[in-house]
Amino acid sequence: MGKGKLKRDGFWSRRRCIAPSRYWKLFVLLLIITVVFGMLSDLTYMSTEQVGKLNDRTEKQFKTIVTGEPVLRTSPKILLYTNFFGSMKWYHESKDVYQTKCPLGCTLTNDKSQIESADAVVYHLSDIASQSTIKSGFSFSFPKYRRQDQVWVFFNIEPLTMIWGDMTVWQGMFNWTWSYTQNSDVYAPYGSATTLNAEEAAVAETNSELLNADFFGAKTENGGIAMISHCTDEARRYRIIGTLQKYIPVRIIGRCGEGCPDGYLSCNALLPKYKFYLAFENSDCEDYVSEKYWRSLARGQIPIVAWKLYHDDIAIPGSYINVYDFPSIDAAGSYIQEVNKNKTLYNSYFKWRFTHKLSDVSGFCELCRKLKDDAVPRMVYHDMNGWIMNQTCKPVTVSLIVYVLF
Ligand SMILES: *[C@@H]1O[C@H](CO)[C@@H](O)[C@H](O)[C@H]1NC(C)=O
Ligand SMILES: *[C@@H]1O[C@H](CO)[C@@H](O)[C@H](O)[C@H]1NC(C)=O
Ligand SMILES: *[C@@H]1O[C@H](CO)[C@@H](O)[C@H](O)[C@H]1NC(C)=O
């Protein structure tokens, strides 16, 4: 189950055009082996003990602290040097973030000519490494200019099953990492919650609206709904859904289900009507709790998740049903069937509202805050690869391998 078992021989998993004409026998053999192993690995559940062992990994350092005081500016300039999946939409959508969402006094630009005055330069992983560059060497050209106190930021928010590359070429290149993993310098989860302070908790305890809330009664539809638009299935979602359907009705909408005939918004409007949202991630990686989970909480639904790895340091304990907390998927299904019928039991999944509140963490705000914080040391990632490899993802499954090869 270790991370070392992931096959990493190219940057991107979407490699469709390998022509194995000369090696077809070897190729077929390899395929059979991967299918068999993939099936076996699908049957393996990770126990808490195994997860514990993973977390025993030796404490290796992937970054080096550079001597010297950080240079702090009252209004740091952040330069988005690359696109985000080929598009500059992330700049246009975020350019006002420092005026509206987090008025911390940073400025954001995508104008490369401002490299000399930029305090942080952000590079999005898939836009500096793509399939076209992996074979012909790295064609992305980093700026020639680099000021000593400038912070170069490695940005990636995709689950790590999507990254199969060797990043040794970037040793010593980046100062900070910006990702959804908790060990990132700029920690940007897809959602978050904070614990209520004593005063807020006291208010919540006597809040009659909260005390009388009937999440069960507010649902017009029985059972669960899933919206799936990324049809490959690294984490075996469809198999789990198939089993759950023996116990509760499950409707699948989105590109990989019924579609959204009346548009995306009409699909979104369907979601809150159902008792459960099947918030299955497309990948099963450490710290990877995507917006699927957070949005179902915000909608007043119970998320059904399939987490083999421990996530209660990010998610709110008692707010979800994890199918892997049961001895089998059938056992989970039969329990969910119960919750689907029992109002008291159903509503008990919303007790977290007396102790927690949902909050918004923006990577942009976090980056700005760090740039202005003199407690953050100067540093450089001498082992970019090690940093990525130190994360755990569930082993690659058959469907992913087949998808990657063909
Ligand atoms: C490597 O991963 C382990 C387990 O998640 C973690 O405790 C440790 O801090 C990580 N090491 C570094 C240097 O990030
Ligand atoms: C419903 O769930 C509650 C809480 O778990 C339990 O005490 C009660 O017996 C259940 N009711 C029925 C009818 O099963
Ligand atoms: C960033 O990394 C570079 C290259 O390794 C290093 O020379 C520089 O001192 C680092 N800067 C900061 C602000 O950490």
Structural class, judged by helices and strands?
Answer: alpha/beta
Instruction: Please count the beta strands (DSSP E, at least 2 residues each).
Output: 15
Shape: globular
Write the H/E string, N to C: HHEEHEEHHEEEEHHEHEHEHEEHHEHEHH
Query: Which ligands does the model contain, each kind named once?
Result: 2-acetamido-2-deoxy-beta-D-glucopyranose
- Gyration radius from CA atoms, angstroms: 23 Å
Residue stretches low in confidence (pLDDT < 50, at least 5 long) are 1-20, 40-58, 131-136, 396-406
CATH architecture of the largest domain: 3-Layer(aba) Sandwich
Give the DSSP E fraction (strand runs of 2 or more residues).
Answer: 5-15%
Mean pLDDT: 81
Quick overview:
This protein is an alpha/beta fold. It is built from 15 helices and 15 strands.
